[in-house]
Specification:
Distance between the termini: 13 Å
Oligomer: single chain
Largest sheet: 2 strands, antiparallel
Helix content: 40-55%
CATH architecture: Orthogonal Bundle
Number of helices: 5
Length: 73
């Protein structure tokens, strides 16, 4: 089975930005950003994805990947 993963932690590390700072810039709570970062989210709004890409200076493909669930173990 394939799953969509959010690689937010990788982009945050590359840009050297904290969860709190990114949450403030994007305008969402740290709790909701943490849910995204830890791949616990069931959905993401395009407006949130757009804000993340703007603040991290990246493309959606830098944040999202589609992978086999078995390869994650």
């Amino acid at each position: 089975m394939k799953v969509i993963l959010v690689n937010l932690d990788i982009m945050m590390a590359r840009r050297r930005i904290s969860l709190g700072e990114l949450a403030s810039r994007v305008g969402i709570t740290q709790a909701n950003l943490s849910i995204l970062k830890n791949n616990k989210a069931k959905a993401i709004r395009f407006s949130t994805l757009e804000a993340l890409c703007r603040e991290l200076q990246c493309q959606p493909a830098d944040l999202l990947s589609y992978e086999e669930e078995d390869s994650l173990r």
